[in-house]
Request: fold
Amino acid sequence: MTLDLHGPVGVLAQHLIDIESVSGNEKPLADAVEAALRKCPHLDVVRDGDAIVARTSLGRSERIAIAGHLDTVPVAANLPSRVEGDILWGRGAVDMKGGVAILLSLAAELQSPHRDVTWILYDHEEVEEAKNGLGRLARNHPELLDVDFAVLAEPTDGRIEGGCNGTLRVEAHVPGVAAHSARAWKGVNAIHDAAPILAVLADYSPATVTVDGLEYREGLNAVAIVGGRAGNIIPDRCTVAVNYRYAPSRTGDEAVAHVRDLLNRAGVEGLTIDVVDHGSACRPGLDAPLARTFVESVAATGAGEPRAKLGWTDVARFGALGIPAVNFGPGDPELAHADDERVSVAQIEQVRKGLVSWLSE
Amino acid sequence: MTLDLHGPVGVLAQHLIDIESVSGNEKPLADAVEAALRKCPHLDVVRDGDAIVARTSLGRSERIAIAGHLDTVPVAANLPSRVEGDILWGRGAVDMKGGVAILLSLAAELQSPHRDVTWILYDHEEVEEAKNGLGRLARNHPELLDVDFAVLAEPTDGRIEGGCNGTLRVEAHVPGVAAHSARAWKGVNAIHDAAPILAVLADYSPATVTVDGLEYREGLNAVAIVGGRAGNIIPDRCTVAVNYRYAPSRTGDEAVAHVRDLLNRAGVEGLTIDVVDHGSACRPGLDAPLARTFVESVAATGAGEPRAKLGWTDVARFGALGIPAVNFGPGDPELAHADDERVSVAQIEQVRKGLVSWLSE
Reply:
């Protein structure tokens, strides 16, 4: 398969959609991407598994990364693609082959951007953390991620969404003592003893925190509860899973301490709290001069004012390296993973224009 | 297999234990029981499936039922039986072949009891309600259960345990609205909204109710809770299963109303409550003259003062027919179903003596 990076970006996006690349099956697409980028003499190309990194080496004072993932969630009878007027339908249209088309098209065209650019196309974003291609690049080739600012072309409907909230999941275990429910007084009911935990969660008022000029709305919620062994047994354990979505004003450790403090306030004897999942937050860094130029250039092309990213995205991998990052890409995020996934070609072109404006100004 | 009903009751008990009769496999034992009872000319024998009913027809003014089940829970390398001094080890020693041995031995011996007796040996007590042999008898042959008082020889450690508490299980469903947990304010958290339900349950003080002179200690407990769809979804449903163990002072309908009232007091909008399981309570009837003679005769043989049965047993099937009933049998109920199930032969003989005293006085 040969990709033409020099034609219309909408045509390239459609071609990318039609190369099925569900997580784990990125190789044919990665091969095509690698071959096309290696034809560009102004780029140094490195491949790691099914991730490809292509860099300019112009000696600019600043280097930025622009990244997107090649994989999609499973196909739902929505391949091959189809076009209806301006709308491109098919798996990956939103998440995120429209964005990938922009990256490849710009990587080929911009032979002399005003800042050095590290273009990153990676695998396994839609599956478990351990397989994530960007995480693997950070482990295998940390030097390739040594940049001053990063843009992830995740779908934002053509808006700039800065940084991201962190997401922490803990499990709080309330102990009890089992007994036959006909002699309940011989036991200690762990579900009853979980009542103050739920009360604390129900009473909690999540904050909205301004970071680098963007408003991050937080959330703290029980996302699961389970307890009980049988219909005639006093439950000896009740577990509440809590998800804390926190603004990048907090470090990961501070977020954990906040949730521990809150749950311990319930005063449940013997409560234990385990962290089961944690993706740190990422600052947008929009107060830095480099980021300000990005916002100014892109806003002028129709992206409007930047806003905070509330969901967790791979920008956090840059955040963990101390690199501010933003999300900026075509497609309505509400349509990502949907059976009727679709994107406007005009929006793909608009996002491309925003990046061109910034990189060429 | 031939059963000798006229020898020592301990030997008969051991023989019964050694005829494996895990629920569903009662036939060999039922065949042996039927054959042995049919040899007694003073008994009318009826068989229904693997249940056998044997009756005296002496024209007495009162008729009592004495019942026990033939099946056991699965064997746990505890067959064949073994004897150590006074102790008989093996599956069913407690639950309830010691009791069955007493029934068979007395059925054969007591040719002219002072009250007509309906001896009932039945199948499928240790499995689901729908298979229960006593329930099947009540449906197929209601006339066979038309008695004035009933004794179930379930293990009570040689004590009289009158009637039984009812057991009601309901599920309370708290509704919510699902949303991505990064945008929690778009949802309604069903687990948080369950907080007042748990608070009401934790605050509840169960009553102790005196019925026909016995003290029934109640209990009302969450026995299960479940909620949550995924670690990043605001839960749209939380279900709390509640088990109410209630004294025979309440009817089944009153027990349901009590639990509904209590849960509705939590003020949870959209709460729905379903009854999922319900075994009614049974009065001990110990204030009736017939029962008083039972208590007087049996207490004098070492059974001590009667107490309430807190667990639910098949006496409730008699209770549902308006027939007062008590539990009275050999074996420590805490050892029922245990791998080290064992019974004292002296206690089997003592319970037998109590029944003889009552039936022959």
Summary: Residues 94 and 156 of chain B are 9 Å apart (CA to CA). The first strand of chain B starts at residue 44 and ends at 48. Chain B has a mean pLDDT of 95. DSSP finds ten helices and 17 strands in chain B.
